[in-house]
Amino acid sequence: MPVILAIESSCDETAVAIVRGEAGQAAEVLASEISSQIELHREHGGVVPELASRNHSLRLRGLVEKALADAAVTMEEIAAFAATTGPGLASSLLVGSTAAKGMACALDRPFLGINHLEGHLLSPFLHQTSVPPHVSLIVSGGHTLLLDVEGAGRYHKLGGTRDDAAGEAFDKVGKMLGLPYPGGPEIEKAALGGNPAAYDFPRSMRHDPHLDFSFSGLKTAVLYTLQKEQGNPSLADLAASFQQAVIDILIAKTLRAARQSGRHIVALSGGVSLNRALREAMRRACESAALELVAAPADFCTDNAAMIAFAALLRHLAGESTPLAEDIHPNLPLVCSRA
Ligand code: KG4
Ligand code: ZN
Q1: How far is the CA of 184 from the centre of ligand 1 (A)?
Q2: Quick one: which of 16, 77, 126, 209 is 20 to 30 A from 199 by CA?
Q3: Cα-based distances in Å from 13 to 85, 117, 128, 131, 303
Q4: Kind and range of the H or E run holding 19
């Protein structure tokens, strides 16, 4: 059974994973190491690319050694090496892809360059035996995407954000509310016990027939509310109302996408999909629309290398590899239709 080692270093997590699998069987995650740089970037209120890439270089070797030890496999047993090659920060992508190419070269194994978004998109199916046709919602710090998925490697974009990504909106509103970076998990915590109907924030383009998103109006509405209520607005109510508005928009567009494409399965992935209120609301919405929801396992929602290794495994099993000369692509889109 082929064993794949993958590196994820597109943003502020350095991650290495080892996954084993065979066609028609659920993949096995033998190791998944993540070294988060959140603390490092927190004092700057966001990711500093130079700090990120320097830290990837520092952490990577130790993480590869730990992954091999945890998985109890040797370098020689690895069938192919993979890395995220886009989209992401150029200097960060370079660290991971160069390391994976180096190992592939030294051991004379194939290299696979993986699209970070394909990793998120496939993550809900890590523990399943196949990737069925479905509608996929990817909600992360950098992207908000709705796709029609025919199967592994066959993706058609249905809609995306016209301004901020959902996670970006969480992070920016978190900052406005004086919460630490990243705002997503902090807003979820602050919203507990808050009234989601306390503020009637806009649900931009919710009823429009297209499948695009917009979160900048919502973000501005939170800012105006904060300015108006100089007194003491309830943090819990503000957080809960903002979170509810995001959830309502995401659910409305996802259900519309499922209706329009005629798919019966909805997949949910990306860092924002860790949000329990979103997962629960999406579960209920899918249930009443007779749709099956497959959400990414909690361990694989935020950036990780297991999802990259899994995407690479599926490509490796399909007989694919990436030429070593292929460069990183900081703005790589996810509109691929492989035969
Ligand atoms: O997928 P991810 O790790 O990185 C990207 O590919 O962008 O997603 C990170 C994003 C951040 O914006 C973070 O605030 C958000 O996911 N996030 C959350 C939660 N946990 C992480 N947003 C809402 N609720 C959460 N519990
Ligand atoms: Zn991501």
Answers
A1: 6
A2: 209
A3: 14, 15, 25, 26, 7
A4: strand 13-20
Give me the residues paired with residue 335 across strands.
Answer: none
Give the closest residue to 240 by CA, choosing from 268, 199, 274, 183: 199
For the domain covering 134-296, report its CATH number.
Answer: 3.30.420.40
* Binding site membership of 118 for ligand 1 (Cβ less than 6 Å): no
Domain 3-127+300-317 fold is Nucleotidyltransferase; domain 5 (3.30.420)
Average pLDDT, integer, range 178-207: 95
Does 271 contact ligand 1 (Cβ within 6 A)? yes
Distance separating alpha carbons of residues 228 and 48, to the nearest angstrom: 32
47 Cα to the center of ligand 1, angstroms = 13
Peptide bond into 233 cis (omega under 30): no
Asked if the model's pLDDT at residue 317 lies above 70, the reply is: yes
CA atoms within 13 A on the CB side of 319: 2
The reply to whether the predicted model has a pTM over 0.90 is yes
